[in-house]
Structures are given as C-alpha cells and as structure tokens.
Design goal:
With about 150 residues, this protein is α/β, with parallel strands linked by helices. Helix content is about 50%, strand content about 20%.
Length: about 150
C-alpha cells in the first residue's frame, strides 16, 4: 500500500476515519492525502473581500477560501503525524464531494480511500444520495467507511 486518501470534512466520523487512515499510513509507510472538498465558490464573499482589503492581499477570493480551508486541516495533519504517519499532504478541491474524492483517488492512483459515514441511514441515503455510497459504488480501489 503506497497511497491512502482520507476524505475529511471535519465531522466526527471523518476525523475518526482520518485517525484510522493515519494508523494505516504509519503501518505501511504510505503517503497519506488528507482531502477535503469545498462547495462551489459562487461569487464574492463580502467577509473574505474585506479581509483581503484589510490585509492588502491581492489573491482572488477563491484562492483565499481554499487556503483558509487548507489551514483548517492543520490540526488533522498534526493528529496524523502524532499517530506516526510520515508522508502527509493536504489537498483541497472544489465541487461535488463524491466526484472530487473519486477524481483525486484516480489521479493519484490511490490504493485505499478512507472516509467517514454520518449514519443517516439507508432511506436518507437513498433519498438524499450519500457521498460514501457513491464513492463505494464507483471507486476503482477499496474504500473503508468508518462509522
């Protein structure tokens, strides 16, 4: 096992999944990719625009939002390192979560995807479409779902 993608949305199940992925990465000396997917950035965010003006930042708002999300994963990165994972990277993508998780795993030739399940149940999953269900159904590599 060389590459593990851990999908993290900072929910409790996804943090448990990231911890398990870090344990596996440590055991197999594998690369651990902490992946989070943000929603489409639909236009200017007044708060982020004000921050950019105040700090004299010239980056476009979507770049600032992605960097802000990346910063929020620093704690997850530290937790993974504390569990012994040595090769850790953070990836932030924008779009539909299941599609982006699959795209990242395919592009990086992941050996395993680890993700949490919020446990909404089968009916809610059928009606709403569970990200975990979509990833399990369409992934080219094994998927470990942590409850």
């Amino acid at each position: 096992m060389k590459r593990i993608v851990a999908a993290v949305d900072r929910s409790e199940p996804s943090l448990r999944a990231a911890d398990l992925a870090a344990d596996l990465a440590s055991k197999y000396d594998a690369e651990l990719v902490l992946l989070t997917v943000g929603h489409e950035i639909a236009g200017p965010d007044p708060g982020m625009e004000a921050y950019a003006r105040l700090e004299h930042v010239r980056e476009p708002t979507p770049t600032l939002v992605i960097e802000s999300i990346r910063g929020e994963l620093a704690e997850v990165h530290e937790r993974a390192a504390a569990k012994g994972a040595r090769h850790i990277s953070i990836e932030v993508l924008v779009g539909e979560p299941a599609a982006q998780i699959l795209a990242s795993a395919n592009a990086g030739q992941a050996d395993l995807i680890v993700m949490g399940s919020r446990g909404h149940g089968r009916l809610a999953g059928l009606l709403l479409g569970s990200v975990a269900q979509k990833v399990v159904a369409l992934a080219r590599c094994p998927v470990l779902v942590v409850h």
